[in-house]
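User: Can you fold this complex?
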Amino acid sequence: MSNNIVLKKGLDIPIEGVAALETIKTVTPDVVAVKPTDFKGFAPRLLVKEGDKVLAGSPVLADKQNPDILLTAPVSGTVQEISRGDKRKLLAVVIKADGSNGSVDFGKKDPKSLGAAEVKETILKSGLWPSIIQRPYGVIADPALTPKAIFVSAFSTAPLAADAEFAFKDDVQAIQAAITAVSKIAKVHVCVNSESSVFAKLQDATLHTVVGTKHPAGNVGVQISHISPIKKGETVWTLNLASLAAIGKIFTEGKLVLDRLVAVTGPAALKTGYVCALPGTPVCTLEGCFDKDVETRFISGDVLSGENIGKDGYLGFFDNQVTLIREGRERELFGWAKPFRFNQFSSSMAYFSWLLPKKKYKMDTNTHGGRRAFVCSDVYGKVLPMDIFPVYLIKACLAGDIDKMEQFGIYEVLPEDLALCEFVDPSKNDIQAMISDGIDLMIKEMA
Amino acid sequence: MEENTVKPGLFEKGGKLGWLHSTWDAFDTFLRVPATVTSRGAHVRDSLDIKRVMIIVVIALIPAALFGMWNVGYQHDLAMHDLPGFWNQFFWGLWKVIPLYLVAYIVGLGIEFAGAQIKGEEVNEGYLVSGMLIPLIVPVDVPLWMLALAVAFAVIFGKEVFGGTGMNFLNPALLCRAFLFFSYPSSMSGSQVWIARRCGADAITGATPLSYMGEGMDSITGAGYSFWNMFAGTIPGSVGETSVIAILIGAFILIWTGVASWKIMVSSVAGALFVGWLGTAFGATDVPAYVQLVMGGFAFGTVFMATDPVTSAQTECGKWIYGFLVGALCITVRLFNPGYAEGMMLAILLMNTFAPLIDHCVTSSATKKRAKEVSVA
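Assistant: Here's the predicted assembly.
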């Protein structure tokens, strides 16, 4: 049975550099990083020290609040470095791969025959529990809770996002196994973008077809708000396809397999396509895909919500996309006053981008203007297919007003859901950061 | 495109002229897009910024401003018969209006720059629009010192004390006009102020159609005003408010670019027609409702002032209510206050103060309704 969700609002950013549907290479990196910073709410405690030998699936970090929540090594090898930042914040555990493919045996299990407790235990042991995100707030799921439901978006509409049907073409069975497993914990909802999608045949889940392809239709937060909005006191969990594939393989293969097809995209990419890589792979292994002489921003994820990881950074745990864009430090003469700026995109009719509806733009990181107070009131709602008042929510976050944040729907959103509001904002505010600060305040105050 | 050249250290914070940083920055970013790159959040941004939004409004005002300049000369010629020819009239009007612009921009921007400098912030572009509006909504012969005082009042107490563009709750240009109106009524109303005179000459009498409002449609037509010349704008009035044609060109630009809300414009017209119709139906006036739309400052206010995104309602539903009440209040004032029949200024200022309340009602009823729906499901 399939239910339709019709979404009309949104915006597809016409940025150049969509990944060609071909696998360029398999990256076998020398080192792989486990980054606790990828997981909101994870307070890392080290379980290894430099020089320790680990297998794929060996615990590396545990959560201080809940020691059952582990992060495990994605490859077998030796712990090479514990990387720390300011105030000795743990940034990454860097593991030197030995290439032996040794892995911890979790034992093959048929998810159909398991109960909720066993499923939880298996996922916790494998180190994949942190891949389950709990809303409100987007933190690691609390294993002691039973959520209202579990949501999965089987497609992405983010700019230049990996094509899910291509990237996960070999993982459908593993994803099915994972859905069967987590359906023991709570009801699973899967959103697909068409009834002919390979994911439309998934069992043990309620399927929803999202009609309307504009971003952010593929954001799980938008889908939740149309299926079953999150009220105060409720929790829901979300999983992405890459995490589901890995969880499924714990059951079907009995070991931790995190390899995934990662889309290499963006206007600064010399070559686009897919590479087979592990989360935590150094982005410098994409040699040949970028021009070393151009100041490039390396983004793990998409241009709206991805993380700027720098040229020495590592692919994020949740990401199956790397976007390369140029840093935009050039100063265009009379930019704002020119009647025509055919090389700059604007969704607004105040420019003439509408004359070139098919054009793809070489976008860069320039903000195209200075930061101002909120002036325009109607640009934000047009790109947010949710039943909330975005500017009111943002202002409530800025004011730190808990009651108003609740009233305007802080439980339903994560920063990524308002990323397009940030893109179109003529006042150039960092809206995602404002929402994120608001969420942090909620976590602190409601604890 | 050009390479990023280093800003002179002179104007940087800590530099020798560091205290002029905001002023330097304003001119620098006026000329060239700033080199700032995104740091948190979305890595790419739309090329629309507030400068672009503001310049669109300025462009939309140009037809009304140009027409107003010509009309200043034309009205003078009608009364005195000493300015033959279109260009004579236009340049004479230009010569009359330019000082208003100089005063409005020098005083207003001066305060904005000083304010930004004191606060150490970037200069906001909002005043580019206010400065463009102010000369268009005053009688052309308003003494310049009065205008300067009013602009200073409007910018300081209407905007800067609240934190600048985006934080104000009253439209600064209208506040400027309200200040003039209540402080110096003899220079702002009556029948002596609407036609420009030559230096030192006596005032020229020429009443606006609105001043005949109380006496009914017959005296309006009797004074030589028809729907069509009021529509075209060849009548006495504030500089930019007379020509509905020029204002409609501006309205088209604003609506097409999405800079101003069409909902507010449409609902304001609806509100005006509704009360205008009530007025005729109950015998309060015999001026047909559609004539109200072309008289006085209604059209100008609806298109350029009521739609100010900062001081109007922020929610989409709120915009309908706000616009309707602006139009309705304007005509209500006209119907029941023949002594001062121009209701648009007061209607908009009043609704500016009520806009947050309208939004509050809209948002809280929507969130309450939603909470109920959800708990049923």
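Confidence is low (pLDDT under 50) at residues 1-6 of chain B. The CA atoms of residues 22 and 120 of chain B lie 6 Å apart.
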